[in-house]
């Protein structure tokens, strides 16, 4: 590991920033590539590559590189982005980089896919890699297309399918939940009991670190999640515990919450809160991965840190 060089894409994003620091801590030399400016870390090589969907000459960036961690891509959004754009950036660009990596003799290619390559935003049963993938949107289909393209290459690859990630700098749904937890008032969400899998950012970076080792079986996809799924009520209680407060949750009947959400035009958001998605990391754990962070502790630490804006 010491002295090995990694090409990391997407280092300016929420996940990518944490990956960069973790890889450096593990002793890797890191070269970053992305649309943004160079990370403000001494000794880090950075290459501006422009739009991932445009043709890119990857060969100079792979010179002297041992492994690739590809975390760049077009993030999930609710509507407005054509399917062909997702395919162009998340599938075709990934495979262009992977083919260049194959030609350059790269030893390990780690692709940050998504649980949405396997499922929609909710699931009535626990998910495992043995299930037939059934993505429900353009984002998920593009990630699955990239995974299937990797399977056709002569390359040691690992695709990681993270569930909802949380940690310092998180945005979107988890940031909104964190703001709710910090409100100094009781919340009418105590009745939301459906379990959801989450993923601490330190567990994700550790999974990437494991995927880069010889101990990790390659040429397959792995779900990555914290081992213990939680309900929304459990998440809020853990966050408030980090603030030194009690849960402060009122068990309002779900029918009333659904009605209120519908009247407020937030039915889709409520459905995601009220329904579960449990995805098991058993395959990755069986391979030897040991997640370092416990979910409730990590949520409490995040709430206490107030480092949620990135």
TrEMBL record:
| Pfam families recorded | Epimerase
Reading the lineage from the top rank, the first entry is Bacteria
Classification via InterPro entries: Epimerase_deHydtase, NAD(P)-bd_dom_sf, NAD(P)-dependent_oxidoreduct
Which residue ranges does the record assign to the NAD-dependent epimerase/dehydratase domain?
6-214
Identify this protein by name. Answer: NAD-dependent epimerase/dehydratase family protein
Query: What organism is listed for this UniProt entry?
Result: Bosea eneae
């Amino acid at each position: 590991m010491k002295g090995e060089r990694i090409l990391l894409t997407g280092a300016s994003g929420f996940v990518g920033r944490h990956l960069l620091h973790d890889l450096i801590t593990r002793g890797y030399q890191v070269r970053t590539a992305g649309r943004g400016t160079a990370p403000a870390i001494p000794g880090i090589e950075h290459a501006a590559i422009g739009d991932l969907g445009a043709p890119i000459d990857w060969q100079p960036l792979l010179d002297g590189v041992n492994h690739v961690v590809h975390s760049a891509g077009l993030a999930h959004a609710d509507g407005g982005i054509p399917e062909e754009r997702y395919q162009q950036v998340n599938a075709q660009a990934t495979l262009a980089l992977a083919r260049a990596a194959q030609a350059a003799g790269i030893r390990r290619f780690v692709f940050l896919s998504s649980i949405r390559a396997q499922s929609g935003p909710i699931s009535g049963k626990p998910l495992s890699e043995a299930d037939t993938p059934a993505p429900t949107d353009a984002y998920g289909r593009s990630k699955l297309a990239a995974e299937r393209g990797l399977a056709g290459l002569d390359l040691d690859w690992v695709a990681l399918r993270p569930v909802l990630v949380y940690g310092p700098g998180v945005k979107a749904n988890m940031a909104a939940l964190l703001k709710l937890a910090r409100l100094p008032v009781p919340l009418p969400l105590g009745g939301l009991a459906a379990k959801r899998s989450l993923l601490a950012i330190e567990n994700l970076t550790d999974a990437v670190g494991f995927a880069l080792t010889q101990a990790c079986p390659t040429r397959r996809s792995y779900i990555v999640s914290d081992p213990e799924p939680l309900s929304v009520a459990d998440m809020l209680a853990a966050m408030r515990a980090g603030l030194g407060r009690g849960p402060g949750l009122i068990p309002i009947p779900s029918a009333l919450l659904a009605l209120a959400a519908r009247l407020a035009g937030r039915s889709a958001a409520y459905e995601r809160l009220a329904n579960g998605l449990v995805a098991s990391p058993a395959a990755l754990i069986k391979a030897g991965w040991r997640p370092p962070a416990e979910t409730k502790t990590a949520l409490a630490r995040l709430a206490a840190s107030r480092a949620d804006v990135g």
